[in-house]
Amino acid sequence: MVLNVRNLVAWCYGIYLLSSGKVRKLKEKSKNGAFILSVYFHNPSKKLFELSVKWFLKNGFTFISVKDLITIKENKLGFPPMAVIFTVDDGWKENQQNIFEIAEKYQIPVTTFIATEPVEEGTLFWWSYVNIALKEKWQVPSISEMKKLKNQNRLDFINDIKSKINKQERDALIPEDLINYQYSNYIHFGSHTVTHPILSNCTSEVAHFEITQSQKILQNWLHYPINSFAYPNGNYTEREIAILKDNGYKIAFNTVPHYLTPDKMSNIYEIPRFDVLEDVSFVENICRMTGLWFERKKLK
Fold it and tell me: What is the secondary structure of 46-109 as a DSSP string?
């Protein structure tokens, strides 16, 4: 945890939530199959990921896979009691040691959504280039501002930054890291586009390429159907859903922090997820993973 006022206040609020009996009530609802906890990570430390796994196991939860969710939807099955699903976005190089090895150790399913270009070419994730530029005090938009730009305008900034810096150590896994787990019972992969753009800011041609080409690349590496997807930054429109359907994807995840209830399964291309942060207390992350943190927003 980064020690600052925000995190200390959040830790106190988290302690209040955990001591209020809300976790016990949540577990009772989960035992009745009222919802599935859908949780996602990016680049957690091994300690954070393992603590998260152990917390759910200690509290009686069962880990289910993305494939299980598809089966529940297609066969119209009821929700399993005390169920949680872990997914991971991007494909950071540290995931191999910090996530894959832990998932194998505890025998829990995890799906990682891969942005293929950084894996294939060894480039940085685009926001890493922005961070380099900001550190050098170059006049570029912030990451949050970049996310609002039309895709080509964002790419112009990124390409300009790339031209001014030396080659950097890669951010992402390498293809062999994925291939080594292609027969794993616990480690699975889905698509997160090629370059991790904000799809809603892309032209239709680019959005189609990003969704279909990443699927082709992953299938070429892994030799099994890639039918799951996570929207970069959680942004999408009906256009992206249509592209996914047309290309054989069976499920897609957004970043809306909601419980995965039966009614939310009615559109399997808009599966919600609770996020885990890497620079806050584990107390806060327990509250985030269980959805208690978002009660302030009166989520149902």
Answer: HHHHHHHHHHHHHTT-EE--HHHHHHHHHTTPPPPTTEEEEEEEE-BTTHIIIIIHHHHHHT--
Question: What phi and psi values does residue 23 have, to the nearest 5 degrees?
Answer: -65, -40
Residues 158 and 268 in one domain: no
Q: 67 with 163, same domain?
A: no
> What is the value of pTM for the model shown?
0.95
Residue 3 pLDDT: 74
Helix, strand, coil percent content, the chain, rounded in steps of 5: 50, 15, 35
What are the tokens at 297?
A: 């927003």
CATH of the domain at 232: 3.20.20.370
Alpha-carbon gap, residue 269 to 251, rounded angstroms = 5
Residue finishing a domain among 110, 138, 169? 169
pLDDT along the chain (300 residues), means of 10: 84 92 90 94 98 97 97 92 97 98 98 98 97 96 98 98 93 98 97 98 98 98 98 98 98 97 95 97 96 68
Q: Which domain covers residue 15, as residue numbers? A: 5-123+170-297
Query: Tokens for 216?
Result: 């082709």
End-to-end CA distance of the chain: 29
Q: Is the domain of 202 the same as that of 291?
A: yes
Q: Count structural domains, the chain.
A: 2
